[in-house]
Amino acid sequence: MTARSGRRPGGPLAGLLAALVLASGCVVGGVNEGAPQQPLPRSTRQPSSPQGEQTRADGTTSVAEFQEDMAVAVDKAEIYWTAQFRASGRRFQPVRRVVPYQREGEVSCAGQALPRNNAVYCSAGDFIAYDVRWSVAAFRQVGDAFLYYLLGHEYAHGIQVRLGIRAQFTIQQELQADCMAGAYIGGSIEAGHLRLEDGDLDEFREGLLAVGDDPDQPWFAEGAHGTAEQRTDHFFRGYEQGLAACNLG
């Protein structure tokens, strides 16, 4: 792991929180979607050796390992965001629940059935939900590091709600969440809560390439998340520079 310097925890967050009223209600109809409704490509990268609790075992395949990594990703996200809010003099309230589902319509958000092959944040109920079959397939095909990005992106939508952030276009909200996911992962590595293994950065890039919009989709379209290049750029801005790169205010 290479340590990064120059990151001041809570700096950009402190400026925004100073004039903050916590938001409630729905963002984009109550649902922020973080992934396309299609399978991810199979990874061609060779697995590396397991190493401990954090971003552990590239190339692993069991559901038990997926569940362990998901639990660790949630725990580390809560630790990271608690520290950011504390540095700003505020108490952090974690996202209420992280809910796996298997069938379309099994979970709903503000009356809207959640689709298969996706992961979403529901502001109406303050929970993250993910299609467990799709997510396990991504875990097996792309690698465990991408799971941390996926959770980090959806958790970032919960942070946007807590900060009262509203964007004119969906793509602005989504690219900011990519940046915040990068900041969470990079900051957690810098703090020693997570560590990189060989190939993890490739997993982030491969997964981000898979979830990018079609290049022909208008950037201002409702539901636009950004092209693969845009999403990768914003994620690594946050990863390398921290929250200061994410335009939080």
Automatic annotation (TrEMBL):
Entry's localization field: Membrane
Topological category with respect to the lipid bilayer: Single-pass membrane protein
Origin: domain of life: Bacteria
Protein's UniProt keywords contain Membrane: yes
PROSITE patterns per the UniProt record, alphabetical: PROKAR_LIPOPROTEIN
Matching InterPro entries: Uncharacterised_pept_Zn_put
Ranges annotated as biased composition (Polar residues): 40-60
GO cellular component: membrane
Keyword Membrane in record: yes
Signal peptide: none
Region feature (Disordered): 33-60
A family per Pfam: Zn_peptidase
UniProt entry keywords in alphabetical sequence: Membrane, Transmembrane, Transmembrane helix
Stated name of the protein: Membrane protein
Record organism: Micromonospora haikouensis
